[in-house]
Every structure is written in C-alpha cells, then in structure tokens.
Design a protein that fits this description.
- The chain contains 9 helices and no strands.
- The two termini are 29 Å apart.
- It has helices spanning 6-25, 33-37, 43-53, 72-82, 103-112, 130-141, 161-172, 177-180, 196-209.
- The chain is mostly helical.
- The longest helix has 20 residues, at 6-25.
- The chain has a domain at 1-35 and 52-67.
Length: 214
C-alpha cells in the first residue's frame, strides 16, 4: 500500500486539523512556535489516522500544537470520537451548562462510565493531568485495576495510590509505551498536564489495544 511519508502526513495533519477543532469547539488561541516544534517521531502517522477517521481535530490557524496541554473537555471529545461513543445521559454539574459546546461530550463520557458525575465539578476547561487521563482510559476499557506495578516509571511512587492500578493496567496493555521512551527509568510525571501529543498517543494506543471498541 502506498503510504505517505511521516513529513507529508504531518503537514497534511497540520493543514486539516485546524478547521475541524474550531468548527466543533469554537476555540482558537494564539499560535506558539514552541508548541509546534514539540513533535514526537510517531506524530505523522498517528495524526494522519486520527484525521482520516475524524476523531482528531486542530486549530483554526492551521496548527496542531502537539506540545500544548489539553483540557478535560478536549480530551473527552477526542475519546468519544475515537471510540464512536454516541449514547448519553443527563449530567448535573455546577460548571456545565446546556449551551457549552462540550456539554454533550461530558454526557457521553458519563454514559460510557469513564467520567464520574455525581453533582460535583467536571472542570471542563482545566488541563487534564497524565494521571487523570490514564484513569479515564482504564475506566473506558474496563481494565483490571488490581495490579499496581508501575516500576517502569522511576517516579512511580508519585502516582496516587488510588490511581496506581489504572496506570499499571495501561502499562500492561502497552498503552503507555510512548511514555516509557522504550527504556526503563523514564518518568511519568503523573500530575503534569497531558499534552495534545500525549493525548494522541494514549488514545491511539487504547484503540489499538481494544480493536472491538468494547
């Protein structure tokens, strides 16, 4: 099969990615050269696939900003689209309103069981941390959380006890391979905001590990 080169794929991603995000979210921000330069080696092919399947979107100025942190609202939107989640339930939260572009996305996430909404704040505009994202993906895939081996990360002790099972489960499934840098002793930095590149990696790997979608 004739495949585009990584560079061509990345350029295609950057050009197409943007209009989609603004159309869906109405969000646009000033471009950042630092964000655009932070491009992992796998970005081209995964961006291309995300775009072609319609679950990945970018910014109205033609940038993808892989090094930019991703909000909780953006993350659940990408997850919902990547896993074709459409069912929803009513959600009551003091920081979620019917007119918000992401209201329906959180309603889908709650229905799918990877966001817990019991009347508390959902913090849609807050950056999602690496640890929080791991918990969401583990819940979505309904993974076994009984294991707690996170020794692949040298800062495993920094992962909260309540969330260690989720991170360990993703490690076992290979979903966090990009975060280990292919070698022992990498840092997970659990409280660090997840970047858009990290979100693409995690969601892509989760899909690959769960091809049935269920």
């Amino acid at each position: 099969m004739n495949r585009r080169s990584p560079n061509l794929a990345f350029l295609l991603a950057c050009s197409l990615l943007a209009a989609l995000m603004n159309a869906v979210t109405g969000y646009a921000a000033a471009p950042s050269a630092a964000h655009e330069n932070d491009r992992p080696p796998w970005a081209g092919s995964r961006l291309e696939e995300g775009l072609s399947e319609g679950w990945l979107h970018g910014y109205a100025d033609g940038t993808s900003r892989l090094g930019k942190s991703i909000t909780r609202a953006e993350f659940v939107t990408f997850v919902n689209r990547a896993f074709a989640l459409t069912a929803s339930v009513p959600v009551a939260s003091p920081d979620l309103h019917a007119g918000d572009w992401y209201a329906g996305e959180f309603a889908k996430a709650v229905k799918a069981g990877y966001i817990d909404a019991d009347g508390g704040e959902l913090r849609p505009q807050q950056a999602v941390s690496r640890e929080e994202a791991a918990v969401m993906i583990a819940a979505l895939l309904k993974l076994d959380l009984t294991g707690t081996d996170v020794s692949a990360f040298k800062d495993g002790d920094a992962i909260s006890g309540a969330d260690r099972g989720a991170v360990a489960a993703l490690l076992r499934k290979g979903i966090l391979d990009d975060f280990t840098d292919g070698s022992a002793g990498a840092s997970f930095n659990p409280s660090e905001p997840l970047t858009r590149a990290g979100a693409v990696s995690m969601i892509y790997a989760a899909r690959e590990s769960n091809p049935s979608g269920g």
